[in-house]
Amino acid sequence: MEVLFVAHRAPFPPDKGDRLRAYRHLTRLQRLGPVDLVAQADTEQAAETARIGLAPLCREVHVFARRRWPALWQVGLALGTGGSLTVGWHTDGRVERTLRALEQRHDYDLCWSFSSGTGPWMTRRRTGRRIMDLCDVDALKWRALAQDGRGPRAWIYALEARRLLPLEVALSEQADACLVSTEQEADDLRHRGHPRRLEVLTNGSPWADFTGLPKPSQAGPVVGFLGQMDYPPNVAAVVHLAREIMPGVRARVPGATLRIMGREPSEAVRALASPGEVEVTGAVGLVPAALATVRVFCAPLDRGRGIPNKILEALSAGRATVVSSWAARALCGQPGRDYLVADGVAERQRVLADLLADPQRCDDLGAAGQAYVRAHHDWESVLDQLEGLVREVARA
What we know:
Layout: E1 3-7, H1 17-32, E2 35-41, H2 44-54, E3 60-65, H3 68-81, H4 85-90, H5 93-105, E4 110-114, H6 119-123, E5 129-135, H7 138-148, H8 151-174, E6 177-180, H9 183-190, E7 198-200, E8 222-226, H10 232-252, E9 257-261, H11 267-270, E10 278-282, H12 287-291, E11 296-299, H13 309-316, E12 320-323, H14 325-328, E13 340-341, H15 345-356, H16 359-376, H17 379-395
Parallel strand pairs: 1-2, 1-4, 2-3, 4-5, 5-6, 6-7, 8-9, 8-11, 9-10, 11-12, 12-13
Helix pairs in contact: 1-17, 7-8, 10-15
């Protein structure tokens, strides 16, 4: 089976969200036959890193560094003509020419497209079968960000949500199969269109990388959060934790601290640092080692889309994990056994304080969370589901 894999962002290094999901998918697709990859990157350095990193998996790798000013011109053109800003940002003649040249040299059995930014590329392909991974449904992510923001940026987010959503619905209807990461995204698409074949493919976790970590009870009274720390939902979560939740927790558990871990902390995140109360670490070396330093992981995410990988990592690390009811929608475990769900200031303060004061409860909750991840988010099992879908689509 020959596969043409197109991505809006080169899936290497696999160290965050969409790159991690696409990279894992690529590792399984390349077992089925030769894969040629075409993608974009933000800089030439990132493009070269991706070319080197993806070469062992692909027959051909074509990663183009985005030409910023032509891309901004396309965004401006889309803004003025009623088009999608996402599509404008990814418009690149080099990509289309490369795709056409590849199709002249190879007879592809499958075109795999990751993210709606690749939609125009996919619809122009002449391959026999097409699978579209919409992952989190970007339009609804923009809508959520618009609800949290204000001013021109929120207006732009809301505008793009309105313009992109019809395109994403159309892609789900045109593809032989469309993938999303949670049932919530699937329901959202079904309510807005008639996808030809819609499949929920969750994210996995490399849980084996987290084995052998000390139990939560061996850590101090530390609440942790880990993520990309310039992403607005993550910023909102840690600001909420630091300013509204932790003061009440410290009143009940003296010495309790908050550790905010993750690359590129925004100015608002850096401003939260306070000796003895809030630590902002920036990028961490090894995620398992970083999570081992906290007793409780708290993800009070009240906006965003999809399944947060940070939660799967915390569960894999055996940390006692507290999530919002919004985040819990992406999980299929048993609240109260595998993780705790808490909403609102008072409830979150109570739950975190009770956990920090009860190390044995943290150990029990962490062990149950690990068992849940192994049963429901093992990457090999997820990729077995992916391979089965690919084979079914290829035979149709």
